[in-house]
Structure formats: C-alpha cells, structure tokens
Amino acid sequence: MKEFAVVGRPNSGKTMFTLNFAGFLNCKKIDITFRSPDGLLNCRHFAIPDAKKELCDSEWHKTRMVQSTILKIPLGKAAISFKLTDTCGVSEEIHSDGAIRKGMAQTLSVLRGCDFIVHIIDVATLSEENLNTRGIDQEIYDYGLAKSRYLLLANKIDLPAGKNNLPKVVGGFNRAKIIPICAINSQGFQEVKAYVSRNI
Ligand SMILES: Nc1nc2c(ncn2[C@@H]2O[C@H](COP(=O)(O)OP(=O)(O)OP(=O)(O)O)[C@@H](O)[C@H]2O)c(=O)[nH]1
Ligand SMILES: [Mg+2]
Q1: What is the reported pLDDT for 184?
Q2: Contact 89, 10 (CB under 8 A)
Q3: What is the mean pLDDT of each run of 10 residues along the chain (200 residues)?
Q4: Most buried in the list 14, 54, 65, 92, measured by CB within 10 Å?
Q5: Which ligand is nearest to the CA of 58?
Q6: pLDDT of amino acid 84
Q7: SS in 3 state form for the chain?
Q8: Which residues, chain by chain, have CB under 5 Å from ion ligand 2?
C-alpha cells in the first residue's frame, strides 16, 4: 500500500487537511494509528468532527508524532487503499522541547521512507523572508522534486493574505505541481483527489 506523507511547517494545516480529506473521501469515522518516536503504537477510533476538535489547534506543534490512517479512493470499479500519514511540523531551528525534536526527526524519517510527499504551506503567513531565503520549505521542495513524487498544497487561500501571497508561492515553487486549497472548507480537494488517484 502506498504511503502519502503530509509534511510542512507547524500550524500550516496538515492535520486539518488530513481529517477533512478523509471526510471528503466519504469517511464518517476514522481509525488513527499514533506512532511515537520510540515506536509505541496506539490506535484510536474517531468521528471526524471529534478528531478535528481534539487534534487540530491554532497553537503550534499540536501534532508531535506520526498519525496514520488508511483511506480508500475509488478507481474505476474498484477502490484502492492508501495510507495518509500526518506528521509533526518541521522548522529550521533546533527546538528547545525534546519531544518536539524527536517528533521532527520522526517526520524526516517518514519523509525518506514514504512513497509520496504532500507538502503543505500556509500561504497566509508566508513572509518575504520565507520566500527569499532558503528555509525548510525550500528543502522539502527540493527533496520532493528529486524524489519525483511530490505535491505542494498552498493552504489557507480563504484568508486575504493567502490570496495575496498565492502568486508569489506559485512563482517561487514553479517546478512543482501546486494546488491551492482551503483545508477548513475542503476547497481544491477534488483536484487533490484526482492527483492522488493518478499516483496511488
Ligand atoms: N483560515 C484557515 N485556517 C486554517 C486552514 N487550515 C487550517 N487552519 C487553521 O490553522 C490552525 C492549524 O491547523 P492544524 O491542522 O492543526 O495545523 P498543523 O499543520 O497540523 O499544525 P501542527 O500540528 O501544530 O504542526 C488551526 O487553527 C486550523 O483551524 C485554512 O484553510 N484556512
Ligand atoms: Mg497537526
């Protein structure tokens, strides 16, 4: 089964995307397997609204370990399963909290081992500095292009700053397939679904 890893900076909308994309694929309830950096597994069953309430937050680093779910996507008359893996947000600096450092290291390991990278950028908070200096987003982008299994989701286009910044992101990451999305209202998800179907 192919594994699609959802990666990006903290607070970019990775968990919101993962859960609402599951809902978009008609899941009412999902099983999420939490895998700690030490390898401990814990599986929990959620209704999607409850999962969003518990696992999404405006506070950074809500997600600190791998959270995977198996989803199905219709392909012709069949339905193909794939694993969608949400991860701890990554950034340039060495975080002072050891649990977050371990979570980020786990994300890098998932990035290396997965079949496909879904990179989420919060276009509403992207600064000129983010765009003009080499940072974590450019590192993920270069790695993803080299792996040639890479999709960039430009998230939060519902916000005015997101709309304004979108052309800059499209220009700055112009070698990638970019889909503008709003993870909270599932805007752009039809195109994401089509892209995932082609690469499953
Ligand atoms: N306006 C807007 N807010 C969004 C969107 N997607 C996510 N958010 C909000 O952004 C915040 C972070 O969302 P999460 O999905 O928890 O982000 P994350 O990338 O998983 O964050 P960490 O787990 O902390 O790395 C939450 O308050 C969400 O409601 C969007 O498309 N538009
Ligand atoms: Mg999260």
Answers
A1: 98
A2: yes
A3: 97 98 96 96 98 97 98 91 98 94 97 97 85 87 95 97 92 94 98 94
A4: 14
A5: 1
A6: 98
A7: CCEEEEEECCCCCHHHHHHHHHHHCCCCEEEEEEECCCCCEEEEEEEHHHHHHHHCCCCCCCCCCEEEEEEEEEECCEEEEEEEEECCCCCCCCCCCHHHHHHHHHHHHHHHHCCEEEEEEECCCCCHHHHHCCCHHHHHHHHHHHHCCEEEEEECCCCHHHHHHHHHHHHHCCCCCEEECECCCCECHHHHHHHHHHHC
A8: 14-15, 62-63
**So what's the pLDDT on residue 134?**
82
Give pLDDT, residue 9. 96
Nearest of 17, 32, 9, 48 to residue 139 by alpha carbon? 9
Distance separating alpha carbons of residues 187 and 179, to the nearest angstrom: 10
Which pLDDT value is given to residue 133? Answer: 78
Cα–ligand 1 centroid distance for 155 (angstroms) = 9
Decide the pairing of beta strands 41-47 and 150-155. unpaired
Predicted confidence at residue 112, as pLDDT, reads 96
Tokens of 41: 């597994």
Compute the distance between CA of residue 44 and CA of residue 151 in angstroms, rounded to an integer: 28
Q: Which domains does the chain have, with CATH numbers?
A: 3-199 (3.40.50.300)
Token output for 25: 């694929």
Report whether residue 156 contacts ligand 1, using a CB cutoff of 6 Å: yes
